[in-house]
Amino acid sequence: LFGAIEMAPRDPILGITEAFNADTNPAKINLGVGVYYDNNGKVPLLECVQKAEAKLMEQPAPRTYLPIDGLAAYDKAVQELVFGADSAVIQEKRAITVQALGGTGALKIGADFLKRFLPNSDVYISDPSWENHRALFESAGFTVHNYAYYDPSTRGVNFDGMLAALKAMPAGAIVVLHACCHNPTGADLSQEQWDQVIATVQAGGLVPFLDMAYQGFANGIDEDGAVVRRFAATGMPLLVSNSFSKSFSLYGERVGALSIVATSGEEASRVLSQLKRVVRTNYSNPPTHGGKVVATVLSTPELRKLWEEELAGMRVRIREMRGAMVEKLKAKAPGHDFEFVREQVGMFSYSGLTKEQVGKLRDESIYAVDTGRICVAALNSTNIDRVVDAVAKVL
Ligand code: PLP
Ligand code: TYF
After folding, report:
1. Would I find Translocase among this entry's keywords (predicted)?
2. Is 63-299 a domain of CATH 3.40.640.10?
């Protein structure tokens, strides 16, 4: 039965973690996967999460099935976080939100839903994009194309190319946009550029699918969410996937959500009914724990404040590591300009290192992605000098 099955290719990023785990060098450093580590090199268990868990355990609840669309308190809190509590799309009941298995699960139910109702549309993702975007939409049955995004010569966004690509897309095309902290490049659009993108998407009758996996890691929770609000304000149909894997450091709990904005409350309830059908035939209903923790934090003022502080702490530490890397490379690799690392936002930097240079780093047990992407959130005051020395050596 399985005799003819071929070996599937490894996930290019999670595969690095497998190689890293197998490395016996105690000084090994994993700059591959997008995970935030604190200055001690540990994945933090946020205090707001611990306090929410303690609070939940004061009145331990049975683990019955959740509704298909998840915990109502969670969906409501997420909606307010993503669109803003005073949002017209919430007040007019045009937005629906479904708890999902992380950002990946949100993208997958969104993709399955879209395939059912826009079977002839193609999907467009940025060049480059998160590796899983293409695979996810292809596995839902779509043909996936790239739109121009990154310009290696400026280490920024090829905005003219991006706009031209958007203008050339047929009406009904699905455009996946990174709301903030572009993965893998760390290069985001300016507010003015977003204005032009929004106008072009609307004029072309395109279907925007905003993926927000790093809300709070660029400039702040509200600042990063602003782009979703601006899309929503146009009144056009919109899909938004969001994830709490990074912002709550709850990777393994699989907490995310898919929100869809429709053109009326009545249309939204039909959309929700179909989305629930997608969920039901995939995994029936989401798990309880992560959703309860996040809902508790978001809806308890003192825990919410604590979360905002802890998230700001992660954001600031990453920025400090960017600055430290630039300054240290200035000293160790004169003649090479790494100032751009300071300008990039979120967890990643497209460092400009070649595949060959990444290979040489690996010989020193420093793991990065072949594309040159490094996770700046994995740098700390203990490992940064070793990383900078190794980078200077391979340049
Ligand atoms: N979208 C992007 C751009 C990501 O980088 C990630 C990272 O994991 C995801 C979606 C998926 O989020 P999750 O890990 O919550 O499934
Ligand atoms: O890009 C990253 O590193 C994160 C984590 O299949 C990740 O988004 C990577 C690959 C993958 C799932 C998550």
Report:
1. no
2. yes
